[in-house]
Amino acid sequence: MNDAPDYKKIYTDILDRKYPHKISVCQGILNKKMLSTLDIIALNKIIFGEQDKEAVIFNQKLRSYCEQTVKEIIEYQKEYKLNNTQIAIKFKLSRNSIAKWKKKYRVT
User: Is 47 exposed, middle or buried (0-12, 13-18, 19+ CB in 10 A)?
Assistant: First the structure.
C-alpha cells in the first residue's frame, strides 16, 4: 500500500472547487501517469501564483526531493548547460544541495 498523498486528486479537487478557470492550464500536468515533485511545484505555482519571500523561505525548509526528482534537476542542468548557481536559483535550492547531489549520484 502506498502512503504517498494522491496529488492528482488533491489538485483536481482544488481546481474544481476554487479555480475552475485554471483547469485547462493545468491539464497537461494532471494527465501524466505519475506526478514528480517538479510537477507538483509547477502546479502549485500555476494555481496559487508566486508566494511572498517569507513564505518561500519557510516552505523551502520543508521540501524534500526523491531520487528521481534530483536526477531530473541534474538532467535539466545538463540540458540547458547551467552552472550550480543558475540551477539553484531556477529551482530555489542551495548550491550546496546541488553539489552534494551531483557528488552522491556521481554526475560531473
Answer: middle
